[in-house]
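User: Hey, quick favor. My workstation is busy. Could you predict this chain's structure for me?
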Amino acid sequence: MNLIPRDLTRHIQHSLKIDRVIAIMGPRQAGKTTLAQHLIKSDLDIQYYNLKDPDTRRALAENARKEFEHFGKHLIVLDEVQQMPSLIELIQLQVDIQPEKKGRFLITGSNHLLLNRRIKESLAGRVSIYTLFPMSFRELNSHTGQSLLKKLLHAPSARDIETELSEFYLPAREANLLSESFREFTLYGGYPEFLTRTNQADRRQWLNNYRQTYLDTDLREIVDLRNPESFERFEQLFVTRVGSLMNISELARDCALSADTIRRFMNYYRQLFVAWPSLPFFENIGKRMKKMPKWYFMDTGILRSLTNNFRMEDGSCFENSVVSELRKGIYQETLREDIYFARTSTGVEADAVFKNIESKLTFYCEIKQRDISHRADIRHLRKFVAFDERNVGLLLNMSNTIKKLEERIWNIPVHWLLS
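Assistant: No problem, here it is.
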């Protein structure tokens, strides 16, 4: 099978040389197993265990210590280790016996329960943790060069950003193909399954099955969900608030559930890598934690499946796609999920906010699905740019060219930025 390059690969390959334990976390079907299997096709000696296999689990339950000691010179790969979380303590003992040995264990897992309760407690200081998201738009298009987003993240100054944007260009044919590709991406998302499942009805059925899997299987690995109907009711009302300020009290009232139950259900979403909160941007980190967040789905295909909405023209789903893709792109470059939104007390908003790595510039983004820009689209960006000379405004839409609209405010086709 030809492997589409994953941007995370370079980080993990480097980590295998310097870390004792490497953990790849992420949602079910995001490609963790495929990535692990291709990573280990090297000159390293490998011992691979698929912990979804009951026979493998039984064998390790009886002889894990002997197995690990016998393959002491190998890289031991434990796939879907949340199936046997008790192995985490044994991994700790093994790596402490040979602290100088790097690349000792590579583990994968598909829920944060393992991450929070086991890895951080038992393997603190011994493990590097990575998140593998569903495939990004860039990965699906097999782009391996330096992306425009990466150039913005590393530009030394506002002047360098102006140079990059002024000079960046895509030929018409390539730009048109990317535009069509991104429109399709906003419909079905980036799960690797869709590389071969191209029929639209088949894709929708797969997304429906995926939803049912995390409700009936993955969720029950985390908690004894005694009343699944209450979670389904929460789910149907939660999706209507995606991309908006998430008021837990209002959602609890509409669901006829307690606020604590709503918080617990939202935490399940985070543990299963289904949805995530975007915090408001403040330089003071404490303020971010106290303010009301917005929530987005990690993959827009799951969001559309929940709402049974596969209409191309849907601004909320489009925004979800763009914000989630920005988050992926920033993570692949920095290994941090530093994507926020902005909202002032007077109602001035920016859909996404992120900081430049090199020069501490701050980018404020307005996201519009249309293919032409209007002056009204940048009225909020003007105010954010005016706050500080280090602020840059980006109007992200489906247009066909990069254009400077005003000082430090640019129109950028979103498919150009993310490819």
